[in-house]
Amino acid sequence: MSGTTRRTFLAGSALFTIVPLAPASATPEAMAQAIRDLVGGRPVREGRVTLDLPPLVENGNAVPLTVSVDSPMTEADHVRAIHVFNEKNPQPRVFDATLGPRNGRAAVATRIKLGDSQRIVAIAETSRGELYGASADVIVTLAACLEDLT
What we know:
Layout: H1 6-13, H2 28-39, E1 44-46, E2 49-52, E3 56-59, E4 63-69, E5 79-86, E6 93-98, E7 106-112, E8 118-126, E9 131-142
Parallel strand pairs: 1-9, 3-9
Antiparallel strand pairs: 2-4, 4-7, 5-6, 5-8, 8-9
């Protein structure tokens, strides 16, 4: 009888050990690096992007966030992506949304967790390769419960 026995499976499984990783921790420097990784040497211009979130939130567990970009959303000129970054959550990159001319409107709305008071940055990338950005500071009075893996 050939095949994998329980003993050989368990012996082979011992080679794969789960190693807990240190929790990720975003900092203003980590956010700046994540933005540099995205934009490379291209300039990020102000304007065209509206970042709408409350300046003061009582509870960081579900903070409403809307990013809209002034764009004709035509085949020749449209927003290809919207990227959102933060300073103090476990990861500096909150999300990336991919868009196209069929979206009709360059806007994304969601809710995010915020572990502390911090700056949020939104960057829109156009089909012409241009980058536009906006930022906002948010004060959080009760931080979201962020899992600590230590």
